[in-house]
């Protein structure tokens, strides 16, 4: 059994905030990679850093599978063949299912409009006309080739895990994507593999697990037109509600009981604790 990672002794002050901001802001879904290999040591550094993601009760429910070389190519071939067959005969869709529902059904506003804008923007950069099913399918197949990236990463949970593990794993995956930027690498988060979990999981030896998502990892092809596509973001004012700005003593009460001068009392959080102690002297 491997020894657990010990928390690094670091300051709570970020020495270079701009580098953190740049890593976050420069992340995008890269859809064309160079074939340049990525060293295993680099991937290990990324995963090690990402492991400091939060999780409920620190259960760390994620499992990670890195595919490269022959394993990567074989899996790509299997899923591309399955997707070709599905395109030729949509009735085969009953053989493939996501292990959790990713999108709403039916779509509603404003999410429908955002999805359409993203699709139109991407196909616009690729010069794929609306209704050109042949080219749309070819572009979809690129997902299953990791957009040319030499590294594919799959994230899973044990099947017994509840929905909270999806949240935990998503935070871990985000850390992977940001840590990759620190190594000069780019990524593309992929849910397109999810319907083919019945092919992916046996290939990984993970039949008793739930496929959460996949990730393409590599060096971006900076000359590829598709990598100029950057969908916009909603202004935080559109989704943020500001409630009471001043902290309330009532809101800060806890159910934790401690002992003060031999008497039990209800403790308060942070600066309110002394105020309460003076008021409730025994």
From TrEMBL:
Determine if Oxidoreductase is one of this entry's keywords: yes
The segment(s) forming the Nitroreductase domain are 24-219
- Gene3D superfamilies per record: NADH Oxidase
What are the names of the required cofactors? Answer: FMN
InterPro entries found in the cross-reference section: Nitroreductase, Nitroreductase-like
Keywords of this entry:
Flavoprotein, FMN, Oxidoreductase
Q: Which domain of life is it from?
A: Bacteria
Q: Which GO terms describe its molecular function?
A: oxidoreductase activity
Q: Does the keyword Ion transport apply?
A: no
Report the family membership. Answer: Belongs to the nitroreductase family.
* Protein name according to UniProt: Nitroreductase family protein
Q: List the source organism.
A: Bordetella holmesii CDC-H585-BH
């Amino acid at each position: 059994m491997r020894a657990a990672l010990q928390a690094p002794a670091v300051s709570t002050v970020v020495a270079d905030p701009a580098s953190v901001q740049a890593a976050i802001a420069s992340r995008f879904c890269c859809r064309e990679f160079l074939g340049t290999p990525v060293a295993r040591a680099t991937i290990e550094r990324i995963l090690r850093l990402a492991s400091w993601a939060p999780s409920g009760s620190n259960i760390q429910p994620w499992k990670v599978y890195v595919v490269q070389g022959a394993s990567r190519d074989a899996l790509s071939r299997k899923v591309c063949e399955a997707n070709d067959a599905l395109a030729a005969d949509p009735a085969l869709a009953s053989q493939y299912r996501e292990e959790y529902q990713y999108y709403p059904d039916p779509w509603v506003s404003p999410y429908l409009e955002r999805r359409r804008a993203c699709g139109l923007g991407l196909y616009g950069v690729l010069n794929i006309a609306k209704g050109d099913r042949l080219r749309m399918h070819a572009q979809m197949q690129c997902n299953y080739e990791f957009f040319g990236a030499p590294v594919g990463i799959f994230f899973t949970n044990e099947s017994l895990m509840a929905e909270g593990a999806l949240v935990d794993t998503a935070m871990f995956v985000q850390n992977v994507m940001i840590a990759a930027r620190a190594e000069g690498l780019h990524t593309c988060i992929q849910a397109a593999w999810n319907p083919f979990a019945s092919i992916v999981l046996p290939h990984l030896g993970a039949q008793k697990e739930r496929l959460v998502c996949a990730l393409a990892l590599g060096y971006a092809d900076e000359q590829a037109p598709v990598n100029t596509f950057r969908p916009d973001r909603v202004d935080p004012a559109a989704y943020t509600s500001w409630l009471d700005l001043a902290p309330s003593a009532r809101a800060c009460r806890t159910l934790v009981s401690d002992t003060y001068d031999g008497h039990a009392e209800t403790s308060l959080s942070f600066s309110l604790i002394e105020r309460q102690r003076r008021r409730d002297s025994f």
